[in-house]
Automatic annotation (TrEMBL):
Name of the featured protein: SDR family oxidoreductase
Entry-linked InterPro entries: KR_dom, NAD(P)-bd_dom_sf, SDR_fam, SDR_oxidoreductase
Domain Ketoreductase: 3-193
Source organism (scientific name): Kribbella pittospori
Lineage: Bacteria, Bacillati, Actinomycetota, Actinomycetes, Propionibacteriales
SUPFAM superfamilies found in the cross-reference section: NAD(P)-binding Rossmann-fold domains
Recorded family membership: Belongs to the short-chain dehydrogenases/reductases (SDR) family.
Length: 296
């Protein structure tokens, strides 16, 4: 059955791939992008061209998750045009690289605003519609860094993604009785096919960066190189989009709570497996195990 889907951060990377894959699967997809008439004009044009060439329903929509008003307007556009919102994909995010101490508090706040607070803005815009429907699916695109091996010089990004993962876990329980289901997608460190590393932010305090270079010279280059070497030749970022298509197409109540797509196998699947079992067991012990699945 065709679903109405809204994806944040759909101008490139996982978001663009997922928007196209879901549209190819027959869903009506709103590809959220900020500044459609500016920095993302080309991305919006590409999405429209893809829709025309493949005869699918893929619609760029203005969505800046740093703005309450933009988040509300994006959801209002979807609902006014289709009458419902079935799937919300939290994909927008930003990576930074460098020694943690060299990032200003303002930089960390900005990073958290994009990776964490932005999901809250979009939830507050979208959940009233989903609660009213007594139905929906929230897909959170996380990161294996939240529980897998974590190399240095990525601390602010890792911390932000861990915060988003924690938020997703709690939201899953709090919306379940409204019939809303949750899946957390956990991609590994794909070094090809996205612009995460190439477009990553850098620390503002260059004096601190210089101080760290006396002991850690070339460390980020080493991390990037070694992560690339760990990545198998067959690794394909498109697998993330394919998994989301599978989750959306799965029968309600049978969707997985968490899905890992990590060709390099950094260990997150093992740690998450234990943590999710402990979480489920505690909910059973306190009589809230009905929250592990959405209400029918």
């Amino acid at each position: 059955m065709s679903k109405t889907v809204l994806i944040s951060g759909a101008s490139s990377g996982f978001g663009a791939l997922t928007a196209r894959a879901l549209a190819d699967a027959g869903h009506l997809v709103y590809a959220g992008m900020r500044d459609l008439n500016g920095r993302n004009t080309a991305a919006a044009s590409d999405a429209k061209q893809y829709a025309a060439e493949h005869n699918v329903d893929l619609r760029p929509v203005e969505l800046d998750i740093s703005s309450d008003e933009s988040s509300r307007q994006a959801v209002d556009t979807v609902v006014s045009e289709t009458g419902r919102l079935d799937v919300l994909v939290h994909n927008a995010g930003h990576m930074v690289t460098g020694p943690a101490e060299a990032f200003t508090p303002e930089q960390l706040a900005d990073l958290y605003d994009t990776n964490v607070v932005g999901t809250q803005r979009l939830n507050r815009a979208a959940l009233p519609q989903m609660r009213g429907q007594q139905d929906g699916l929230m897909v959170w695109v996380g990161s294996s860094s939240t529980r897998g091996g974590t190399p240095p010089y990525l601390a602010p990004y890792f911390a932000a993604k861990a915060a988003m993962d924690a938020l997703a876990q709690s939201y899953a329980l709090e919306v379940a009785r409204f019939g809303i289901e949750t899946t957390i997608l956990v991609p590994g460190a794909f070094t090809h096919g996205t612009n995460h590393f190439a477009h990553s932010g850098k620390p503002a305090d260059t004096d601190i960066v210089s101080a760290y270079e006396t002991k850690y010279a070339g460390l980020m280059e080493q991390v990037s190189q070694k992560l690339a070497e760990l990545e198998p030749s067959w690794a394909d970022v498109a697998e993330v989009a394919k998994e989301i298509v599978t989750v959306v197409g799965t029968e309600k109540g049978r969707r997985p709570f968490r899905v890992h797509i990590d060709p390099s196998d950094d260990g997150a699947a093992v740690v998450n497996g234990v943590a999710d079992r402990v979480r489920a067991e505690l909910l059973r012990r306190i009589g809230l195990d009905d929250l592990l699945h959405p209400a029918a």
